[in-house]
Amino acid sequence: MQINTVQTSAFGDQKPGTSGLRKKVKVFQHPHYLENFVQSIFDTLIEKEGMPTDATLAVGGDGRYYNRHAIQTIIQMAAANGFARVIVGQAGILSTPAVSHIIRKYKTFGGMILSASHNQGGVDGDFGIKYNISNGGPAPEKITDEVFAKSKVITAYKIADLAEIDVDTLGETSFNGGKFTVQVINAVQDYADLMQSLFDFSAIKNLLASGFQIKFDAMHAVTGPYAQEIFINRLGAPAHSLMNCVPSEDFGGGHPDPNLTYAEDLVKIMFAGDKAPDFGAASDGDGDRNMILGKNFFVTPSDSLAVLAANATLVPAYAKGIAGVARSMPTSGAVDRVAAKLNIPCYETPTGWKFFGNLMDAGKVTLCGEESFGTSSNHVREKDGLWAVLFWLNVLAQKNTEKTKASVEQILKSHWLEYGRNVYSRHDFEAIPTEAANIVMAHIKAQFESLPNQTFGSYTVKTCDDFSYHDSIDGSISNNQGVRILFVDGSRIVFRLSGSGTEGATLRIYLEAFEPDSAKQSVDAQVALAEMIQIALKISQLKEKTGRDTPTVIT
Predict the structure, then answer these.
(1) Full DSSP string of 426-492
(2) What distance in Å separates the CA atoms of residue 88 and residue 93, rounded to the nearest whole number?
(3) Residues in contact with 25: Cβ distance below 8 Å, sequence separation at least 6, in sequence order
(4) Domain identity same for 387 and 433
(5) 372 and 241: one domain?
(6) Is 210 a catalytic residue?
């Protein structure tokens, strides 16, 4: 096995975001671009983490264009940089939660996830790469900051001359007298076994056999094979319960983001009146996000987290109760109210799943979630779309008996009656010129001293700030995590620039108002928040500074 040292020049734009490095495919195809970033990761691990001689690396992705090429390159570079084994998902397919599970199950040193998550794929689409550490979660900022620092000064990378690995066939291939091995595994079976250990598959199977109809949309992305194994093979759902379940390099030409805008085909099916199935769900490109729908009814991710926390003891894995919950700062306070009633802690963190990892490792929380359609528990260290879908089905199975029937809508409305409703919405303004987006944020921050005590219609500003987080486990501090406008009655508006896009900037506006009056809890969120939406536009001067006043996506 010959190891080559290739001279290279540094790129200045390889700073990982909240979910790794994401760029257009054509950027990654630039000579040495992928190799530079991978070598910067390996150099950081060798220098900072003390990589052992028997280290194993897990590798896989969501099947988007360029995945297969990148996997072969990473295998060759892993061999050259001292890894003893690489575990690859069959066909190179691994959902993000499945990678986390594999890291934990096989006790690998870490893993590389090849995905740009919910971003579009294809030759002209996006590609991404993220490193997860040995607990299965995303690398913390102390590692990603060091990776970026090394990427700016890199002068060479190491790569081995290896024959291309057949990643479509299960088995092992050894090189260099067995000192380096590549193992192709059936990761779908591994993940399905994990799900079956957490949930009451018998109860869910009985629910589906009773005539309860479901529709799951994999959006031509990674969860298709997992859904086939779980819903069809193990739970006995009819084949027509699944749609778009064959992974595609360009996601069928669609946008694999499970929301009301991009999962349009599923939404039409679920809002078809009496003909609609009882339950619908979708997942994103890499399988870590989920959208939950009932018959003619949409569940916000914030409400979904709260309902799962309130009903956790109905699920075998959480029957003894949960230790605590955590949510990202922009996520609504609905789960806070559940935590208060259960007398368990509730943590508010910045956006980014890595912030939940420390809390879960320390045993502080069991369930966690983000308003961006991500929910999960301590079974892995990533968001987990199919886990959330199965959790809902398990709850529905327990609430639908011969004597009682419960729909998704009924479960939500009963929850609001008990806890009140945190009326919530997120407005995304995508592909704003970065300079214009920064001007908007600077304009809002310039009003921090003048906004408190100002009245806007029905709302009076109490305070405003730029959210900072002090990690109680490792002591790290994360600043500038989102601008908050907090009102006297507990309502709030949050402005945040997202780091998940590859073109311009995405400005997200989060709106939240608490509604305790049961007579008003069924009002459409956009109607209930109409006044607050106008206040957000006035404070930010979004239209004046960007020319935009209509969101790209509303959730």
Answers:
(1) EEEEEEE-HHHHHHHHHHHHTTTTTSTT-EETTEEEEEEEE--EE-TTT--EE----EEEEETTS-E
(2) 8
(3) 65, 66, 122, 123, 124, 125, 126, 127
(4) no
(5) yes
(6) no
Q: What is the CATH number of the domain that holds 442?
A: 3.30.310.50
Q: Which of the listed residues 185, 206, 221 is the one where a domain comes to its end? A: 185
Residues 6+ apart with CB under 8 A from 473: 358, 359, 361, 362, 364
Q: Are residues 363 and 220 in the same domain?
A: yes
Q: Residue 502: is its pLDDT beyond 80?
A: no
Calpha distance 506→428 (Å, rounded): 7
176 and 270 inside one domain: no
User: Can you tell me which residue has the tokens 């957490």?
Assistant: 198
Where do the DSSP E strands lie in 75-155?
Answer: 85-93, 110-114, 126-132
| Domain boundaries, position 88 | 3-185
pLDDT tens-digit series, residues 256-277: 999 998 999 999 999 999 999 9
Give the pair of three-digit tokens for residue 188. Answer: 């779908």
- Pairing mode, if any, of strands 56-61 and 421-432? unpaired
Same domain, 313 and 444: no
Q: What is the mean pLDDT of residues 325-330?
A: 96
Query: Is residue 42 located within the same domain as residue 158?
Result: yes
Cα Dmax for the chain: 75
Q: 28: helix, coil or strand? A: helix
Rounded-to-integer distance, Cα 324 and Cα 318, Å: 12
3-state DSSP call for residue 283? strand
Same domain, 307 and 330: yes
14-58 pLDDT, tens digit per residue, is 999 877 999 999 999 999 999 999 999 999 999 987 888 899 999
Given 100, 117, 332, 540, the catalytic residue: 117
Can you tell me the mean pLDDT for 462-482?
Answer: 89
Residue 448 falls in which region: left (phi positive, over 0), alpha (psi -120 to 50) or beta: alpha
Please check whether residues 319 and 251 belong to one and the same domain. yes
| CATH classification at residue 12 | 3.40.120.10
Confidence at 479, pLDDT banded by 50, 70, 90: confident
Distance from C-alpha of 135 to C-alpha of 42, rounded to nearest angstrom: 17
Q: Residue 284's closest CA among 133, 125, 64?
A: 64
pLDDT of residue 288: 95
**Which residue is it, tokens 């997120």?**
426
Out of 124, 151, 185, a domain closes at: 185
Instruction: Yes or no: say if 186 and 101 are a contact pair by the CB < 8 Å rule.
Output: no
Split into its structural domains, the chain has a count of 3
Alpha helices by DSSP H, listed for 113-200, are 141-151, 187-198
C-beta neighbour count of 163 within 10 angstroms:
9
Query: Which DSSP symbol is given to 259?
Result: S
